[in-house]
Each structure stands twice: as structure tokens, then as C-alpha cells.
Amino acid sequence: MPKTDDLGAWRAFVTCARAGSLTAAAKAMETEVSTVSRAIVGLEKALGCELIRHNTRPVELTEAGGTALKRMETILRAHDALVENLQNDKRTLSGRVRLSTAQGFATRRLMPVIRRFCDENPGMSIDILTGVREAELAKGLCDVAVLTGEPHLPGLVYMSRGRNVYLPVASPDYVRRHGLPLTPENLRNHKGYAYCGPVRGETKELTRGSRVEPVQFATVVRSTDILAVREAVLAGMGVAVDMPLVQIFEDLQEGRLVPILPGWALPPIECFVVANRDAWHLKRVRLFFEWYARTMQALFRGYEAAVSTLVGLPPDARSVDRTRIFMT
Question: Helices in the chain by DSSP H: which ranges?
Fold first, then answer.
């Protein structure tokens, strides 16, 4: 039975309180639900009071549980930082970071970047996840995530990764057979392929200067997989109005795709490398976080430079200082 000074049991309680359920806590801690439950019940017996209201979904804290959560989060952060400092006394970086990014980027672009970091830090391990949302990051289900748009939930640390540029494109073969769409209104005569997944919603409007027009295709195929959309457009099956430049810059360079709808586009969206505040207290997470954000900024600038003479790119009217680290 856990004692009141059992940090492992307290970690189970804090993780459960943050994650909202025993199941989510067990997943975050990579253990069994029964293990988390026994740890919390053991604490409650040792303390002589309940910390959570059992059989509620999501988990609700008692008054004692709320007080304990505030105090124990601070104690666990200090404990983790102390252990890491002692273990890293030789100034070598070691341990594990759980990173979440968009599935399409993870599939086609991420591995060379991670290899660079691991070559420079051979004691580090990186777990790659995909599609973790802001709320899940705040609950501690991963350490670092790339999010589209600025985060707003409390308890997060973030830095710009640079902007995502989105372009309307088609294959040359498709344009030869069906003509070049010049305005959003022309899309009513074309088949569209649209992304609508965990990274962002389906594009409903395009802009050109101060003008805004709806996106309406003759028919549309929607997918949560941006790589499936890319393959369909490459095969000449239809057009896409919002392909991320990161996924198609080689296709534009080599002529497999061409821009359509001159001057019209989904405006760029600033993206961010975001860390859970608890994870941020760990040295390995902080160092990876900053390295990854700056590496991504350089990488995405390179994608834009690669096609700047081939397509019209929107001006970089950045809304955030990309050198700064922010906290919610």
C-alpha cells in the first residue's frame, strides 16, 4: 500500500487529475489502469480522505484533491529537475522526449531532422506521435507538439516554428484536360480534393487582397490524410486549393504540379512548437524544444526559397516574434 511520501503514487494522482481519467493517465504513464487506480486508492487510505470523486467521468477532485494537486505538481517538478541535474552532471543530454507532429510531415520530412538531433545527442531517445491536440498536450500525453495556430490553454510554453504556406495546385495533365481555374467561382466546374483532419479544418474560403470568395467544387473528395490528397492531385484526379508547401515544393520544382487560381490562396498560418509546462522543467525537453523550433524555422524558410521564383508567395507579415519563447 502506498505511503503518503510515495512519489510514484503522487505522480499517478497528478497525472490522473491532469489527464481527466484513469485510462488517459495510464496511457501517459505507460502502465495499466489498475496500477494507477491502486496507487490513488492507496494514497487515499494512507491520508484518510478522498482525493478524487470515484465513478465520475471525467475525474473530479475533492477539495482535498484540489489542494494536493497544486502542492504536488510543484514538488514533482522540483524532484524531476533534481534527478535530471544529478544524472546529467557530466553535461551529456540523455533521456526521452515524446514529440507529436502532423502525420504527413512525420511520414515525409521528419526522420532526417530527428537523426541530426540524435547524432548530436546520442543519449537521447525520441518517441514520435502524430495528431496530438492542444488539450491532450496540456494533459501531459506528450512532451512537445507542433500546433497550427497559437495555443491558448493554460500551462503551455511555445515558440514559433514558422508559417505554413498553402497553395492551390493541379497537375499539368489535369489543366490540359479541364482548363486552368482562374477564380474561386471557376471551381464549380472542377472536382476538388480537400483536407479536413486533426491539423486544421476544411478550407471554405480563399482570399485575394481584401476580397474573400467561397470554395465550391462541382464534387469534392475529403480526406484526413494530406498525403492521399497530394497523390490524387498528382494523378490528375482533381485540384486542391490548400496544399501545404512543405508537401509539394519538389513537385512544383520538377513540374509535376502547377499553381492555379492566380493571386487566390488560403492565408498562411503561423505554427508553433509547444511544450507542456511540466515537461518544460526538464532540461532535455527545454533543449530539444529550442533546437527543434529553430531547426524548423530554417527548414520552412528553405521550402519557400526553393519555389520563390516559380510561384507567388504571400508576404511574410509575421504576427509573432519568432525569436521569443512565450508562456500561457
Answer: 7-19, 22-29, 33-47, 63-87, 103-108, 110-120, 134-138, 172-178, 226-234, 245-253, 277-280, 283-307
What pLDDT digit, counting tens, does each position of 192-206 carry? 999 998 889 999 999
Of residues 68 and 259, which shows the higher confidence score?
259
Residue 78 is predicted with a pLDDT of 74
Secondary structure (DSSP) of 19-42: HSSHHHHHHHHTS-HHHHHHHHHH
Q: Would you tell me which CATH number, out of the four given (3.40.1550.10, 1.10.10.10, 3.30.1330.40, 2.30.42.10), belongs to the domain 7-87?
A: 1.10.10.10
Mean pLDDT score, 64-86: 77
Cα 36 to chain centroid distance, Å, stands at 27
Tell me the pTM: 0.75
Q: Looking at domain 166-259, which of 3.40.190.10, 3.60.10.10, 3.20.20.140, 3.50.50.60 is its CATH number?
A: 3.40.190.10
Helix %, strand %, coil % of the chain (to 5): 45, 25, 35
Q: Is the pLDDT of residue 14 over 90?
A: no
